[in-house]
Amino acid sequence: MDWYQGTADAVRKQLPRFAHARVDDILILSGDHLYRMDYAQFIALHREQRADVTIAVQPVGRADAPRFGILKTDAEGRITAFHEKPSPDELDGLESRPGDERPYLASMGIYVFRADVLREVLTASDAEDFGRQIIPAAIESHRVYAYPFTGYWEDIGTIRAFYEANLALTLPDPPFDFYEPQRPIYTRPRFLPSSRADGCTLTRTVLAEGCLIRQAEIRESVVGLRSVIGPDVRLVRAVVMGADFYETPERKVENRRLGRPDVGIGAGCTIEGAIIDKNARIGAGVIIRPHPPDENVDAEQYVIRDGIVVIPKNAVIPDGTVI
Which of 88, 103, 172, 192 lies 20 to 30 Å from 67, alpha-carbon distance? Predict the structure, then answer.
């Protein structure tokens, strides 16, 4: 099977699986969004309106509207027009809520299709993307409605958005709450031991399980599972993804022979304004500082996007490196 060419192409390649499901409606979600939604209410509105397609939408203001696909609805909530990321000059007349502080409706990339309609629109063309191709065409030929959603929703499909959404979790009153007792969010169980922090200062830090941290100062950061952080490390506004494994003593001896750091963050590092992906090997005394917001760099062992230094998965950063 060829790799997916777009959102619609990805679903089209799964149509044979759907044929055996015997369902009336199919819910299509994006994997790079952070939100909490009751899909039962979403589907109930879809059926109540006898819609062929229903799109979850979020009200946005004029300043944010050009970042999204903007939908215009009539008084009954039926979508009458769609504009993909309109320029500021194109926004006039696209208001669905005139006079409101957030008059525009942005597509969230979350859809409910009637199963037969989904098969129809995907087999009738080779369009690859829902937002740019399938949805605009469906508005002209089918009953397409909007489902307004006013809760927290963040598209984390860019480096900057991913970084900011993670750091927002460290706020005293974060905009998204993982700890709601009535609507919990579960991760995949890994059955790791508790994290251990010895002689550390942790301020506004989200700490996953299985970490080993010694004499480090960590502020406004997210530290992922199995992270190993050496002594005298300073982390500020960093997202550390952690590791997939612990290294054995034998493997650490092999690291010394090969001249490479252990997995984790070595002693004496200062890391600020960075994302450290899984299984990265950060040597001792490494310094990583934030860069200007418009800076983009591609280096052998790291990249900079929107001023954020990103250390890729399995990267090796030698002792004493300054980024």
Answer: 172
Q: Are 211 and 225 in contact (CB under 8 A)?
A: yes
Going residue by residue through the chain, which has 323 residues, state the pLDDT in tens, using 9 for 90 and above: 567 678 888 888 888 888 888 889 999 998 889 999 999 999 999 999 999 999 999 999 999 999 899 999 999 999 999 988 899 999 999 999 998 999 999 999 999 999 999 999 999 888 888 988 999 999 999 999 999 999 999 989 899 999 999 999 999 999 998 888 988 888 888 899 999 999 999 999 999 999 999 999 999 999 999 999 999 999 999 999 999 999 999 999 999 999 999 999 999 999 999 999 999 999 999 999 999 999 999 999 999 999 999 999 999 999 999 99
Bridge partners (DSSP) listed for residue 287:
270, 322
Domain ranges of the chain: 7-155, 196-317
Instruction: List the Cα angle 33/39/41 in 5-degree steps.
Output: 135
Going by C-alpha positions, the residue among 95, 36, 90 that lies closest to residue 66 is 90
| Rounded Cα distance, 121 and 194, in Å | 49
Overall CATH class of domain 7-155: alpha beta
Q: What letter represents residue 114's amino acid?
A: R
Q: Identify the H or E element spanning 160.
A: helix 159-168
Q: Give the up-direction half-sphere exposure of residue 21: CA atoms within 13 A in the CB hemisphere.
A: 15
CB-neighbour burial class of residue 92 (10 A; exposed 0-12, middle 13-18, buried 19+): exposed
Give the DSSP H or E segment for 255. Answer: helix 249-258
Structure tokens at 122: 């995907």
Q: Are 165 and 182 in contact (CB under 8 A)?
A: no
- CATH number assigned to the domain covering 196-317: 2.160.10.10
Q: Give Dmax (Cα) for the chain.
A: 71
